[in-house]
Queue: 2 jobs
Job 1
Amino acid sequence: MTSVTAQPGKPAAAKRVPAVPPATRRSGFAGTLRSEFTKLSSVRSTYFTLIAFFVAGLGFAIAATAGNRVNAGHPLFDPTATSLRGAVYLGELIIVVVGALVITSEYGTRMVSTSMTAMPRRGVLYGAKAVVLACVSLAVALVTSFASFFVGQAILASTHGGASITSPNALRAVLLSAAFVTCCALLAFGLGAIIRYTAGAVTTLFGLVFLIPLLAEALPDNWFHDMARWLPGGSALEPIVSTAPVPGETFLFGPYGELAVFAGYAAVAVVIGALLFRRRDA
Amino acid sequence: MIEAKGLAKRYGDKAAVAGLSFTVRPGMVTGFLGPNGAGKTTTMRLILGLDRPTEGSVTVNGKPFSGLYSPMREVGALLDAKAVHGGRSAYNHLLCLAQTNDIPRTRVDEVLSVVGLSEVAGKRSKGFSLGMSQRLGIAATLLGDPEILMFDEPVNGLDPEGILWIRNLMKRLAAEGRTVFVSSHLMSEMENTADHLIVIGRGRLIADCSAAEFIARSAPQAVHARPPRPDALARAVAAAGGRVTITGNATPGGSAELEVHGLDPERIGDAAFAAGVPLHLLAPSRASLEEAFMELTADSVEYQGAAHESRRLAGAGRKA
């Protein structure tokens, strides 16, 4: 289609200088990653949500450590967990909005048609979204977790009941907390791809993370103990933020095990979302 | 070059497109014409791979759309001007699209100035008027300087100035040798821009020919005449082998509006001169595209009305 012969009765095609340098490689993942980062970083809701996440995590750490100074030093008091619970329990509520919006905002604004016209290989588009979301969430979650930990421990310092980052398992708890929040964002992303509506995706996620664990607690104890470790929320999060096994909750997996369970839920949602994203009409 | 072969799309038991085959060629504006709900948008979505055809296939430059090497360098498509994230600035909207195809940033500034949006490049597109959104959508189609451009109802809701701008842009793009495929339900719009027409109704192909041929084929040619002595002209025309119908009342001066069929203006003029009949007006009357279209679709409606599933086929189009 580079040369065009003149139609009878029509002026010959004018010679054009290409306005864009020719493609040196097939349009693919690298460019789409940059595109998705531009998309995420060019809307206000991303900043509002991520700042809210940071403020909530840190604010909770300050309040919880300041309020628990009297308990510092008690054998059952875990200063690390006290400073991290905000980043995890409040953080998951907030980060899911970013995770869902990465994909549902495209459907809500019908931008998805435009995106898929620019990058019709849907697997590439979906993958780039997931990677950008995971990286941004992890970065912000790490900043929040570390800030919460250090500020919280600074508040506890004068009681001599605080932890340091070199205390046993403290670094692990900080890192796993951030990893958990990242999994939450990805779970919301996968649900967003399946459901396509922000409200629907976030509501479903809350049902999964809050309602199911709550309902499970209504079960007889031995049933609950059998299934608690497999739940995507509730007490199953305690091992992740703690530095020592949670007393009385020996029915749970360890920190890595519980994170893996949650990552499994996220992976299932992301994979089902990918299959639907590729197959369905846009 | 866009080639559709036996393209069909059903939503549930509704057929939006039913067995369309056509080719869109470079170097001209191809109008894609049909009433609302005829399946124009659906066909364009099938071309772009946004929806999957139930049957048949469509290729762009010989490949399915998803197989293109650098899609934006080959095809620019504007289906829905409001399909942008309103919270994103015009510049960032174009940037994120350009990045997917490794198109340099400088090109974003270029297309913004081509469509006249440079001044609002940093503004969120939420506040854009329909005309501005339309320009932003067109800027996006131009990013990759593509050989093929597709516009779905681009003049809908635009003011006269905007319509003229888009019309000239499409003509210019076609004159540069590009393939321009533009849909409309407004026949008058196509009359002004399209060189070639693909006409569909109820998801089926009605015509695929040049715009001039479309008019010539579907409506008989007539010539308007205004003679001061209508009877004399009627006799002269009849003698030359034509027919006359009276279309306008006689004026006080005695002239009447006549329509002559079966003779071209030259023959009528010669016949009138030979018979010594004066003429005050002699003008070929081109059937408008509108009339031609009505006639053709009326046929298709009649034909389909007889078919069993006409009720289910009716209005099965989908607007994205």
Note: The first helix of chain B runs from residue 40 to 47.
Job 2
Amino acid sequence: MTFTAAATSLDSATVLHCAIRIAIDAHDMLSQGLFAPLDRTVPGHFAKDAIDSFLELTETEGQPAPFPLAALDTSMQPEGLKRGVGGFVVDWPTLFRTAGSLRFIGDDWDGFGAPAPNQGATTLAREALAHLGERNLPPSTISATVEGGIGMVFRSGERFASLEILNDGELLVLLERDSHPNSSTIFSASGADLVSVLDRLGNFIERRECGPTPPAG
Amino acid sequence: MSAENAVPHRLRADGRQPDHEFDDPSEMLFRRIRSGSWPISNDNLHFLIDVPTTSVARERYCEQPADVLYTDKSRKATGVVGWRVGDVPAVVEEKASKVFLRVVHCPENDFYPHAEIRCVAEPDSVTPFKPDKESRLRIRRTMSLLAMLLIEPR
């Protein structure tokens, strides 16, 4: 696998996104027994970071995950994710590793019979993280969900969003203002609509759209 | 099971019948949770609340919130959240559908305080009813916002 160190005209977000996608693709190909050559061109150091992440991810996946599973709540763990130069989250590998390890928690991980996330949900969750990385929008928690799948939450001030990537391939989303159930919107979508769902979620959290209206009084 | 982990005799049903009275709205309903490396908060608790039946323990028949931890046979649960009976909404609406919530005491032989917060299709019913995903999320989120953290999981 070779990467050409070039493309200096690409903006950093695009480069990071490419690097993450390559790591995901490489991992998926390995897990499926496919070793097709990668025809991508990204600067070498970004690719190296992504491949290092991928290798760590692979090591994690080879072993049963410890319980309780690592989920990350950066809103309450100031030492968790840190924003790097240029506004990038520098610890995205931790998020990817967490997403990759969640499917090894086993069924009944909550003690009430909840199913573990499956491979499909895991792949989609990593794809979601790649898009979120491009937007520099890290989830504050990533966790298994009792519905079966992987859940992420996002908060910015009074704005809150929950994304659940379910084992059946569906996405379940909640957008909320002011922590009030009456000021929230819930919708579901197909996993095929992941990018548009993430765009809507991101626009809501980043205040680019109004979202649900808070209740009067 | 070690003697330390054995369910105390006071928590066993020992022939007692269900108590269908929930006349004290301040009575707490305890729910055990497993966690560890991430802090439980009202923002992420909905990932841990299963619907349509949420298993809880009645404060009236417990000495302390930690009694509910006896119901986890593998002893992995270390945290407890809770709701007041009076805080459990009678009905939750999502778009055009209404789901009613009922608290039902359903003792188990080795754990008399066991109860369930159930989704039901009619206000007077006690038969669990499984709403669609959106409604379930609405209920999980509503219950998450109403929950109190009583024992932080280790």
Note: The radius of gyration of chain B is 15 Å.
